[in-house]
Amino acid sequence: MSIRKVAAAVLAASVLLSACASNGMYGGGGYDTQQLRFGVIQSITPVEIRDSGHYGIGSVIGTVAGGLLGSQIGGGTGRDVGALLGALGGGYLGSEVQQREAPAQPQMAQYVMVRMQNGVGVGVTQPPNPQLFVGENVVVQGSGPDARVIPQ
């Protein structure tokens, strides 16, 4: 098996495994159109959330190492299978080791309940913002995991 095939298999496996990694603890970071909605804060509750960390690195390193080690087994098709299984196993083990070595750390956040102008209640979990208070007129910017409550 050529080094190009091994590299391609390792790269493909690392991309597939790292796709399971989190984008962060507060949201996904999409690029859709901004939405602005106006309302009044009904409540602010401090919450603790767990940072999902950077688990993609462990799986990428494990995938590369496992693919290289697996490609040393056998010859021909056996070598291809060894590289693929090594990459998959290494990616899984690398992710598991990183999660054990760097467990998720609790982070402070706030859950803000906003009564929108149309009467609908919207809840947003976001990083703490000391400028917010109950009864304040605010703007809910964005949507989904990227939504943020900001003073008007």
Q: What would your notes on this structure say?
A:
Residues 1-21 form the signal peptide. It is found in: Membrane. By secondary structure, this protein is α+β, with helices and mostly antiparallel strands. The chain has one domain (3-151). It is 37% helix and 27% strand. It has helices at residues 3-18, 56-70, 77-101, and strands at residues 36-50, 106-116, 121-126, 137-141, 148-151. Strands 3-2-1-4-5 form a 5-stranded antiparallel sheet, with no helix packed on it. Helix 1 (3-18) runs antiparallel to helix 2. The longest helix has 25 residues, at 77-101. Residues 21-32 have low confidence and may be disordered.
Helix-strand layout with pairing:
Blueprint (H helix, E strand, L loop, with lengths): L2 H16 L17 E15 L5 H15 L6 H25 L4 E11 L4 E6 L10 E5 L6 E4 L1
Antiparallel strand pairs: 1-2, 1-4, 2-3, 4-5
- What is the succession of H and E elements? HEHHEEEE
Class by helix and strand content?
alpha+beta
For the largest beta sheet, what order do the strands appear in spatially? 3-2-1-4-5
- Rg on CA atoms, Å: 22 Å
By DSSP (H or I, 4+ residues per run), the number of helices equals 3
Helix content: 25-40%
Distance between the termini: 62 Å
Percent of residues in β-strands = 25-35%
Please outline the major beta sheet: 5 strands, antiparallel
Main location: membrane
GO cellular component, one term: outer membrane
Keywords: Membrane, Signal
Protein name: Glycine zipper 2TM domain-containing protein
